[in-house]
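Sequence design from tokenized structure. All designs in this work follow the same two-part layout: the structure record, then the generated sequence. An example of the structure record is given first.
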């Protein structure tokens, strides 16, 4: 299985990518997670990426393309992968195509997650994350057992700096301008499938899994 999860911030790509990765034993490659890890570790790449991320802007293409190229070379991807949050520009999509072709492989499918803007803002503004184990919660839809505390490791939960109202607005604008053109890009290549991601997590996953099972390598 070699698939891309495309969609605006907060539609639930990361949540579904985690479930798919566990269910189908494929690698999850999330550029957002990789960049946040670099920021936490204070690497030069992380220091460069931080201000773009805090303001909801895209990190330069060359940086994220390099990250994904390295990950795709990893043996963890030999059983397939879910790309979460990459590509996000037409240039990134073209580069991805070139990297995959150089390996003699291609994408099976690109899933375009769709949720109303109102729900997106609600999902993002209610998200809380664990700074230690990176578990994700939601104040209304996936609340932790103890208020403000991670169920997994007991660490106090935090709000992502880019989940504040002004950064959410910038991210949605950036999505419309730079990422939404990928819907047409992949549709023209007959790779695009729509995903109604408006329902509860388990319902979205059930519907998605049914389609993804077609691409599972046995
Ligand atoms: P990234 O981390 O990729 O952020 P994003 O794409 O904006 O996506 P999110 O993680 O915000 O949302 P999601 O769709 O994964 O939703 P989630 O499942 O978490 O990127 C962050 C930043 O890094 C970017 O702004 C940019 O600066 C940089 N970056 C990353 N990739 C880049 C690239 N390729 N190029 C350049 N820059 C890049 O769910 C959200 C919330 O909703 C959670 O609380 C969850 O519990 C809840 N939820 C999920 N599903 C449901 C559901 N079905 N019902 C109710 N609640 C739900």
């Amino acid at each position: 299985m070699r698939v891309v999860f495309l969609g605006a911030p907060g539609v639930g790509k990361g949540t579904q990518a985690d479930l798919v990765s566990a269910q189908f034993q494929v690698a999850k490659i999330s550029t957002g997670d990789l960049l946040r890890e670099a920021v936490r570790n204070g690497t030069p790449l992380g220091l460069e990426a931080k201000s773009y991320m805090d303001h909801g802007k895209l990190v330069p293409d060359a940086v994220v393309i390099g990250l994904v190229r390295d990950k795709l070379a990893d043996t963890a991807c030999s059983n397939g992968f879910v790309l979460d949050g990459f590509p996000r520009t037409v240039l990134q999509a073209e580069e991805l195509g070139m990297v995959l072709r150089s390996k003699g492989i291609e994408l099976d499918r690109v899933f375009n997650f769709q949720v109303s803007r109102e729900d997106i803002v609600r999902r993002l503004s209610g998200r809380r994350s664990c700074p230690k184990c990176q578990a994700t919660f939601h104040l209304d839809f996936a609340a932790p057992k103890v208020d403000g505390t991670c169920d997994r490791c007991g660490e106090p939960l935090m709000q992502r700096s880019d989940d504040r109202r002004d950064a959410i607005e910038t991210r949605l604008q950036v999505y419309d301008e730079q990422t939404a053109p990928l819907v047409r890009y992949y549709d023209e290549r007959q790779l695009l499938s729509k995903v109604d991601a408006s329902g509860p997590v388990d319902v979205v996953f059930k519907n998605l899994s049914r389609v993804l099972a077609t691409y599972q390598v046995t």
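Residues 165-179 form the longest helix (15 residues). We note this feature because it recurs in several other targets discussed in the main text.
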